[in-house]
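Supplementary Note 3. Input sequence used for the single-chain structure prediction.
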Amino acid sequence: MSARLPLEGIRVVEFCHVVMGPTCGLILADMGAEVIKVEPLDGDHTRKLVASGAGFFPTYNRNKKSIAVDLKSAKGREAVLKLIASADVVSENFRPGAMDKLGFGYECAKAIKPDVIYCSLKGFLPGPYDHRTGLDEVVQMMGGLAYMTGGRYGPLRAGASVNDVMGGMFGAIAILGALHQRRETGQGQYVQSALFENNAFLMAQHMMEGLMTGKPVSPMPDRIRAWALYDNFKTSEGELVFVGVVTDTQWKVFCEAFGLTDLLDDPTLKTNPQRVEARPRIMPIVSEIFSKMTKQALMDKCEKLGLPFAPIARPEDLFDDPHLNASGGLAPVTLLNGRTTKVPILPIEMDGKRFGTRLDVPKIGEHTREVLASVGYATSEIDALASDHVIAGA
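The predicted structure, written as discrete structure tokens, is reproduced below.
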């Protein structure tokens, strides 16, 4: 990667909150775009979330600039329209029609910046559901993911905001595609990404599985494994370790290493389908062997043999993960309470380099003066806006 970041020189004006929209902007920002987050005077409400929402803002808003402005005042609207006129991209994830009512919808943006790329991140793409309020949990329930996760235990939401994060990711992909097209055509366009359609994309493999097998798809807790050994096993300390044996070569290596030559030589276990059928016979034998090993001994042996394995980690364990720390997979950020910590960065590498933190998580309106000056406001004009409480943080 050259000294210039891939998206350097691209200005994005972001009207986004919670997870989906900010994720889209985060991807663009991490890759070098100047992402300007437009917040109300008292800040994005996501800053105030507690409990399971407390980590949203510091996770998805680094590398962004913040401008705090009263969008309902005439002078505030004028400032935002000037900002849009300077933008390559505008992104928003408010309820359908909200941006049009504010006067910042696509048609308005296009009128003042004809080649603008405008991305709306919604619950649903255009269709019978597009008037509904979409949340990650809503689409997981209606889109099959909660069913696939919970199984016999009942519908269960996945343990992360998978649709919000992936929906933001697909929004960023659409923006990148539109930027590429604009280089050829000189024209901007309106692009959309949505939670429900993202969830359907996640379910595609299970939809096709049902067609290919001719059987109803079993949820994850109830499914028949694709391989005979693909499970969590209890070790001598009572700890769990996931171990998988997913090829015929791995089966041979596994049996030889653990002294299971009788299983290796058994003609009824030569192929993976045969072993899956014989799983009730194989599992107790393997479980007994693993139960006499320590967690570390089992993991060390699997690593030496090249078998898939994993300890059962919790989110807080990742702060000290040796691979993430050694590979530069964690970047510094400052939380809203002032505490400094590390956060996982984009899971990509370009030319041997990762995308880290250039700008810390912004304070409310931290870059208001800088941004307004960039669109032509004089210092005296910015002072006047601040005195009139049209802007904050300046």
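The mean pLDDT is 96. The chain is about 40% helix and 15% strand.
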